[in-house]
Amino acid sequence: MELIRTSLWFRAAALVATVTVVVAAATVSGSATAGAPAAPTAAEVNAGETVSVVRLGPFVLPSAPTGEMQVNRPLPNVPKPCEDCYITAIEPRLVTADGKRADMSTGVMMHHFVVAETAATDPTCGRNGIGAMGRRLFASGDERTPIRLPDGFGFRVRPGPWAGLIELMNHSETPQVVFFETVVHHVPASTPGMKAVTPVWLDVNNCMTSEYAVPTGKSATAWSWRSSLTGRVVAAGGHVHAGGMGMTLDNVTTKARICSSRAGYGSGALDGLVTSMSTCSWDSLGALRAGDKLTLTSMYDAPKAMGDVMGIMLIAVYETDEVDGGTTAPAWMGRNPQTHVPGGAGHDHGGGGPGH
Ligand SMILES: [Cu+2]
User: Fold this and answer.
1) Exposure pattern of 217-249 as b/e (b: 16+ CB <10 Å)?
2) Is 127 in contact with 120 (CB distance < 8 Å)?
């Protein structure tokens, strides 16, 4: 994936990856939208779960004398949190060497992290474009959305390598060293009753750079996919950039809303930045049959026209013929995004380089 558009690209120092098994509760960045109900996240450690922290880094971010410094690199071998296990929750974070949150309050932006199973084929891209890296499994933007699957569901970790991509930015005039971590909850594969889910990546500009253009003001951009899977959607979470209101996912064939993922915005040093996306997680967010048309709609209220925003939703599908099983998800998980987009959204952080 060739996204290097700055001469200031810098190859980071040798990558050291470690997996630490932590038995205590995970820490969670509390960024849920005030007052709104939230889907279950990685905040709690459920009975039988082990929590592992997969740490990537250090990433050395040089100072940004001309506005921003970018580290954009493939990660050919991302360590797995466990083997022969199910992942039940994931929380991404970007931290300094002493474990403090690294973010735009000190000029650091977590642009994106994507991890894929290299031996598996991506459900929506095949091996085309970004699908060359394999089946996309999990991703994080600067909002660092934690996701928890409903009780009894898990992503089955299978033999074979994982690979990733990471892009980080330093907008400050001070060099910085950061680590990317995923806090992963998992249970052994032998856990009775666990149901495996399939990760499916839905994207307004799928298989390519994921970037698309929005005009000034309100816009809704739709993208559709004919499902190749039969089952139930059990989890979903979106990703938009500054200026985004959120996104919805509908099964157009059955005329059913599956999930609405709303953007939340920060304040103070994080003013104008997306700091949270709501997620949906339930044992049935909606039935899905092979051939059904799924439509993703990405909504922006942009203070200016932008050429490089994103609209991505990752969903987890429990493949089963019992598509009408499970229980009905609470109505708020399907509500339209109604987030107010602050006036500062979409501004350049230092300007000149790639957008965010
Ligand atoms: Cu993005």
Assistant:
1) eebebebebebebbbbbbbbbbbbbbbbbbbbb
2) no
CA distances from 165 to 111, 268, 310 (A): 10, 30, 16
Segments of the chain assigned to CATH 2.60.120? 16-23+40-188, 197-334
Cα 158 to ligand 1 centroid, rounded to whole Å: 28
Q: How far is the CA of 273 from the centre of ligand 1 (A)?
A: 12
Q: CB 61: neighbour CB atoms within 10 A?
A: 26
Q: Strands 153-157 and 195-196, how do they pair?
A: parallel
Residue 250's pLDDT is 95
Q: Determine the distance separating the centroid of ligand 1 and the alpha carbon of 291, expressed in angstroms.
A: 28
> Each residue of 297-340: pLDDT tens digit?
999 999 999 999 999 999 999 999 999 999 999 988 888 776 55
Centre of ligand 1 from the C-alpha of residue 253, in Å: 28
Specify the CATH number for 197-334; select among 3.10.50, 1.10.287, 2.60.120, 3.30.1050. Answer: 2.60.120
Q: What is the largest CA-CA distance in the chain?
A: 58
Ligand 1 centroid to Cα of residue 23, in Å, is 32
Asked whether the beta carbons of 310 and 204 are under 8 A apart, the reply is yes
Fold exhibited by the domain 16-23+40-188? Jelly Rolls (2.60.120)
Mean pLDDT of the chain: 85
Q: Nearest Cα to 301, choosing from 245, 348, 260?
A: 245
Cα–ligand 1 centroid distance for 226 (angstroms): 24
Residues with Cβ within 8 Å of residue 179, at least 6 apart in sequence? 55, 56, 57, 58, 59, 94, 95, 96, 97
Least Cα distance to 236 among 186, 202, 275, 193 occurs for 202
pLDDT tens digits for 167-190? Answer: 999 988 888 999 999 999 999 999
d(CA 161, CA 119): 7
pTM of the predicted structure, to 2 decimals: 0.86
Distance from the alpha carbon of residue 111 to the mean position of ligand 1, in angstroms: 7
